[in-house]
Amino acid sequence: MSFNKVSTQSLEPDARRTSTVVALRSITTGTEFVLAPDKERWMLGSGPGCELTLDDPCVSATHATLERRDGSIIVRDRRSRNGTFLDNSAIESAELRVGAYLQLGKTTLVAIGAFAKTGRRASELLRGHAPNFRATFDPALRVAQSECNVLVVGETGTGKDLVARLIHEGSRRAANRYVPVNCGAIPRELIGSELFGHERGAFTGAHADREGYFFESSGGTLFLDELGELPLEMQPSLLRAIENRTVRRVGGSCDRLIDVR
């Protein structure tokens, strides 16, 4: 890599900067408020005249506004009693980016980006108010705020993929890739290569370097479905990747850092 000594170099585009905020989602209820593309301004507060009305006694009647400016969404505090916070920092005016957490009173909203390739979002497919359903849905919304790895347990066909997608879509990784992998469908002899990648010449047929699923989903979320189908001898490499966030290609000699949940 070379650097120009005269001009400042640009970093690679951040997905949170390039993706457009299209909705706000309550992390408590999962309710979404869509920011219509043909609208330029929204009022947020507890008053009846607001476009986004929040049932929160700690939210002022006209608490904050959202304004569309040159393709970005700007949030402005309107001298609210308890202040407006973006990612835990008090603000008067700031850009609202995908994955950011907007806090008004005791209400926290996450900024959701466009999902052109995934079709309907998981929150649109997960419907229901039964206590058992909410017992699964609500913790998923809460854990989405963290960066910890998550174990989703359930019988085949019970919607583990939807829960994983829900966590991804409500997280700061929402603008990046969500990669689902059916571990039970990977041929045993190719599991290491598929998950961690391989070096050229690592085995017969390895004619070129290849990135595995862990590296391909870096910056986003990797969902390993049917994890119990993986052979026991893969556990040390898998645990190293999960705990240390490093992977080593099949035939490789060094570990590589990954940023994936």
Break the fold down into its secondary structure elements and pairings:
Blueprint: H1 15-18, E1 21-26, E2 32-34, E3 41-45, E4 52-53, E5 64-69, E6 72-77, E7 84-86, E8 89-91, E9 93-96, E10 101-104, E11 107-113, H2 122-125, H3 131-143, H4 160-169, E12 178-182, H5 191-196, E13 197-198, E14 210-211, H6 213-216, E15 221-225, H7 235-244, E16 246-247, E17 256-257
Parallel strand pairs: 3-4, 12-15
Antiparallel strand pairs: 1-2, 1-11, 3-5, 5-6, 6-9, 7-8, 7-10, 10-11, 13-14, 16-17
Helix pairs in contact: 3-4
Describe the protein in words:
This protein has 261 residues and is α+β, with helices and mostly antiparallel strands. It folds into three domains: 20-114, Sandwich (Tumour Suppressor Smad4), CATH 2.60.200; 122-170, no CATH class; 178-257, Rossmann fold, CATH 3.40.50. The chain is 20% helix and 26% strand. The chain has seven helices and 17 strands. A hairpin with a 2-residue loop joins β10 (101-104) and β11 (107-113). The two termini are 29 Å apart. 28% of the residues are buried. Residues 1-18 have low confidence and may be disordered.
